[in-house]
Amino acid sequence: MMKFLTTSPTSKRRLRATLLAGAAVLAVSGLGLAGLVNMAPTPVFAQSNTAAAAQFMPSFADIVAKVRPAVVSVKVKLEAASMSEDDGQDFAVPDLPPGHPLEKFFKQFRDQGKNGKKGGPKQYGMAQGSGFFISADGYLVTNNHVVENAVEVTLTTDDGQTLAAKIIGRDPKTDLALLKTIDNGPYAFVPFAAVSPRVGDWVVAVGNPFGLGGTVTAGIVSARGRDIGSGPYDDYIQIDAPVNRGNSGGPTFNLNGEVVGVNTAIYSPSGGSVGIAFAIPSETVSSVIGSLKDGGSVARGYLGVQIQPVTQDIADSLGLADTKGALVAEAQAGTPAADAGLKPGDTIREVNGEVMAGPREVSKRISQVKPGDTAKITYVRAGKEMTAMVRLALLPDQKTAAADPAAATKASPAFGLTLAPSKDGSGVLVTDVDPSGAGSEKGMQKGDLILEIGGKPVSKPADVRSAIEEAKKDGRKAIILRVRNEEGTRFVALAFPKA
Questions:
Q1: What's the longest Cα–Cα distance across the chain?
Q2: pTM surpassing 0.70?
Q3: Same domain for 65 and 117?
Q4: Looking at the domain assignment, is residue 403 inside a domain?
Q5: 394, 423, 458: which is the final residue of a domain?
Q6: Of these residues, 8, 130, 145, 240, which one is catalytic?
Q7: From CA 132, how far away is CA 404, in angstroms rounded?
């Protein structure tokens, strides 16, 4: 279960200390017994390696002393209506029978809740996170989810000062926010790292877990490029330094005291640290925060395509050598992509000379290009590599088309799909899906609109059946459908049953 790291004062009351002294004694006793039984001398090279390891084990004290003054606790005043369950503010009032000794005691809490919901005095709560200064004049970084519903923001520095702050800008897509103190400082601040950390590098996290400000933990970079499903531009660093609720928005440092990431989420079945934490990389943070500082928002390049991964079935259907790149499911009319000639079925392989592993890389790279600048798009169409120079636009509001069901339905003979013509003739509507059919296995659902099959537009179920029969006669192993629903347009490759 993914958990964001904002916490509240009530979370402090849930802390429990676990004593491990007994386990430590048992472990030492066990080692002692093993030493008595195994009397063989330790090889010289093993002794040397052990001594070297002890000599080079890092101490983080100098780094912590340098960076901790720049890290703050972020306290946020929230209206009760905007507080989530994760804030820990809900109080469950038991349903007691009349005359119960505790009825009067709990009634006051029930009445307070009713008053808040029926226009009584506004109810407020508090949430807490972390942040860090990036300039001497009081600009600082935290997570968007820490401050997005804030009525008031205050900061507590490492030396105990309390500072008022205001929100300069927020970017929900990357979960970042830029704050500014009311007082201009000066304040201790920390720089962003110019070089990305490697997997296996030591890192140090500083923050405000469970309201325990100034907490320092250490670990290594466990992985890079993690997609945790939190947004369209996921590209997290995974670390094993223990972070918990309240660490949201806090920095992770390299051994030079430079910020390599902003702690944002943890994976935890229990809600506490299990050694899997995710931080937004410093290169993303630096770019987004720069835009927020300049204009209060982030301007991203817009290509105007809906894209999807290239599966092996799709690669076989289109004659592609591998599954790299992103398949264009739709090039929306009037967008830079359509104006540059991109079409459904094209496979984007490179953006500005960088090879794209999949759709996530394409989206991220396009978003990094400023609106109005030109991007070089390399793509494959019908087995031929082509290039388009596309001048990107600003991301506009998008709408999705809906299809109306028709009365008559007919079944597709091969894939377990029940079909009907759409009301406006824009495609063929899927009105039912056999759970055991090939269509269901590929994620097709009731309400999907089939726009094309085998690269040809369709407007009635007979068109679908004809295309299927034609593909079978040609000896093809699969046929590709272009499908639209409320989530967008995509390609679906359906394999024919083996004889």
A1: 86
A2: no
A3: yes
A4: no
A5: 394
A6: 145
A7: 52
Rounded CA separation 31/36 (Å):
9
For residues 481 and 450, the answer to whether their CB atoms sit within 8 Å is yes
Catalytic residue among 171, 175, 313, 346: 175
AA letter at 316: D
Residue type, 295: G
Domain that holds residue 476: 410-495
Q: Does residue 198 sit within a domain?
A: yes
User: Are 235 and 361 found together in one domain?
Assistant: no
How wide is the angle at C-alpha 404 spanned by C-alphas 403 and 406, nearest 5°?
130
Query: For the domain that residue 479 is a member of, what is the CATH number?
Result: 2.30.42.10
Could you list the pLDDT tens digit for every one of the 499 residues in the chain? Answer: 666 666 554 444 333 333 222 333 333 333 332 333 333 454 554 555 655 555 667 799 999 999 999 999 999 998 765 554 444 333 444 455 566 555 555 555 555 544 445 455 667 788 899 999 999 999 999 999 999 888 899 999 999 999 999 999 999 889 999 999 999 889 999 999 999 999 999 999 999 998 888 899 999 999 998 888 777 778 899 999 999 989 999 999 999 999 999 999 888 777 778 889 999 999 999 989 998 998 778 888 889 998 999 988 888 888 888 999 999 998 888 899 999 999 999 999 999 999 998 888 898 889 888 889 999 999 999 889 999 999 999 866 433 333 333 333 444 556 888 888 887 778 888 888 887 778 888 888 888 899 888 888 888 888 888 888 887 777 777 888 888 887 788 888 888 766 5
* Catalytic residue flag (residue 346): no
Instruction: Choose the catalytic residue: 8, 230, 248, 282.
Output: 248
> Looking at residue 200, which CATH number applies to its domain?
2.40.10.120
Active site residue 175: yes
